[in-house]
Specification:
Length: 485
């Protein structure tokens, strides 16, 4: 009997329908990766290993651009080529020094008369086959930033062209209280390096907070880093943000002044902004495919049990010393194994495609949890199909029952939020555990913003998912055991 069951188990795993199922999930995983890449709006400029921060200075006497070129780890890139263009013609060019910085004269003064606008300027950076562009838009000189430390006597335009692999990004106008004077300070953190550029001599104090409610504007920053910045001199400083930090408070001081001129609060991404965007959007394509996968699971179970029972194929196996119950659960477990492998392949391939395109590694914990959610959903429909196959020998009816149940349950899922007085409705679906996992991923990314309309409990989700897999299978087994083959 053991050899017969093993033979049938192997045949169940290697039947064309099972292999086609695996191939479909590979294709679906590729589709998820490409779809996620599309809905996240990710392009090469979001992850290419070349970044530019600079300031464009213009006055009635002269004009120049000073800045820094660096990689996605915040390390300066020497010998990068910098070109300044106007109307398609190169105005001037230079290369960055050993500190990755450059200073380039534009070649002609820019107007400060507020009735005249600055010309279009294109800055191009080239390094190791990569290119980044920054293009200005015409603006009146009077709307540019000035210098807080010496009064507004010139205009400054910030130039930012970087990937989305930063952890902290601040492009901050600075304004004197009770004054119209304004300046600018640019801060970006890549890796553990903070890049700072300002037209003013400034002292920056950075405070780190897990919860922004801990910040008191009238109290000194409890944990802080102090950085002194010289005007028009790019700075790269090491910044090891403490674990658990969700917000950074930046206070700005003019040299020798005990009072800050401005304060800015910025969210901090523990990995990078691009990583956050990918993780935030990751559940969306999975939900889309989870609405299609039940049809695959239903057809798989139908082909392996309901249809063979209808056409008499199972009689051959039952002629041997094999009981109905053993045959039933032997094929049921083979189908669950196929679904498990398919779920693993689906999520692993999707994560691999994202890694290859963007370099963003989906956390293994997220892949495991999403795999569990996909598996629990599909297992429920395998179980429902075995139930219908056990209840009836009619092939078409055995296929129609789980499909009808799927459509009914799907309608319940979409309408559950409309019935707040019946919160238990959210658990009346095989999707419940997958929905719980997706909610937790989003809540982890934005704990203070995202709150589901009807929060799911872990216990309720697990119990519901377990019941959807076990109860229909048991009902199908009891019915199949009592009825003639």
């Amino acid at each position: 009997m053991a050899s017969t069951l093993l033979y049938d188990f192997k045949r169940s795993l290697l039947k064309p329908v099972a292999l086609i199922t695996l191939a479909f999930f590979v294709i679906a995983g590729i589709g998820v990766g490409l779809y996620l890449h599309h809905i996240s709006g990710i392009g090469p400029s979001d992850y290419e290993n070349l970044n530019l921060l600079a300031l464009c200075y213009h006055s009635v006497k002269n004009s120049f651009i000073t800045g820094i070129v660096f990689n996605n780890q915040g390390e300066p890139l020497p010998d990068a080529k910098v070109l300044v263009m106007h109307d398609g013609e190169v105005v001037n060019s230079t290369v960055t020094n050993n500190q990755g910085t450059f200073n380039i004269d534009i070649g002609y003064p820019l107007p400060l008369n507020t009735s005249e606008s600055t010309p279009n300027i294109v800055v191009e950076v080239e390094y190791n086959g990569l290119t980044r562009f920054w293009s200005s838009v015409p603006q009146y000189s009077g709307t540019g930033y000035g210098a807080l430390s010496s009064g507004v006597n010139y205009g400054v335009i910030p130039i930012i062209s970087s990937s989305e692999l930063w952890k902290l990004n601040v492009n901050l106008p600075l304004i004197f209280s009770k004054s119209s004077e304004s300046g600018i300070a640019i801060l970006q953190e890549f890796g553990d390096n903070l890049i700072i550029l300002s037209p003013d001599n400034l002292t920056l104090e950075l405070g780190f907070f897990h919860n922004i409610s801990q910040f008191n504007v009238n109290s000194p920053l409890p944990i802080k880093k102090v950085v002194n910045v010289s005007a028009f001199k790019p700075e790269i400083v090491s910044l090891n943000i403490p674990n658990g930090t969700n917000y950074v408070v930046v206070e700005y001081y003019l040299p020798g002044s005990p009072t800050s001129i401005d304060t800015y609060i910025s969210a901090v991404y523990p990995h990078t902004d691009l990583w956050y965007n990918v993780l935030y959007n990751y559940p969306n394509p999975l939900v889309f495919y989870s609405l299609l996968f039940p049809f695959i699971a239903i057809y798989l179970a139908y082909s392996m049990f309901a249809d063979p029972r209808s056409n008499g194929t199972l009689e051959f196996l039952l002629a041997r010393p094999v009981t109905k119950g053993i045959l039933y659960f032997n094929r049921f477990m083979a189908n669950l194994l196929t679904v498990l492998v398919s779920s693993i392949i689906f999520n692993a391939v999707a994560a691999l495609v994202i890694l290859l395109i963007t370099g963003i590694l989906i956390p293994s914990y997220t892949i495991i949890m999403e795999t569990l959610g996909t598996f629990s959903n599909l297992s429920a429909y395998v179980s429902l199909t075995y139930m219908s196959g056990g209840l009836t020998r009619q092939s078409k009816l055995a296929l129609a029952i789980p499909i009808s149940l799927y459509l009914v349950l799907l309608a319940i899922v979409f309408s559950a939020s409309s019935f707040p007085s019946m919160p238990w409705l959210v658990y009346v679906s095989p999707l419940v555990l997958e929905n719980y996992i997706n909610d937790q991923i989003l809540i982890t990314l934005q704990p203070q913003i995202l709150t589901p309309v009807q929060p799911l409990s872990l216990l309720g989700s697990v119990v519901s998912a377990a019941l959807w897999v076990t109860v229909p299978a048991i009902i199908g087994y009891v019915a199949f055991k009592k009825e003639d083959i």
